[in-house]
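Q: What would this chain look like folded?
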Amino acid sequence: MGSEGETVHTERDKGQSTSGRRTSLIHLIFEIGVIAKGIDGALELIGGLLLVALSPAAIGGTIWLLVQEELKEDPTDLVANLLLHNTQTIIHTRVSASVFLIVHGVVKLGLVGGLVADKLWAYPTAIVIFTGFTIYQIYQLAQQNSFFLGVATVLDIVVVLLVIAEYRHVRLPRMRAQ
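A: My prediction, written as structure tokens:
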């Protein structure tokens, strides 16, 4: 009877160990996703500030500077040609684009700061706001097909799911402690 009990105990330990590794892996992926969101927010903020600070000629020149070497190497480069093609649109929608990018970037950085600091309020807030951003991106995709926006939207959905999983994991021990 003692060996049966040991076997059951060992199987339970294996299950808990596997569950613990799974939780650790999900937490690691969550941390990577949050860091990526933070980098994305910082880049949006910087991009928005640059749109405000730079003249239309400077914007066009900067984009040309960024893509000219790639176009010399491969004149059909998709990303470089998309950037050049969309330069005039960026210049014409400069004010609204800069406001959008600045607000988006600041909100993302604030939420990422709350998540990194493990503030309980940040989890549901991030879930709601990131879901709202994702719904808007899906709307944009319905209006205009974009591979890059599609990839970003899928990644944003993954991040929202990771925040939900992490919130459940963080909230339960805190609720038990009360």
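DSSP finds six helices and no strands in the chain.
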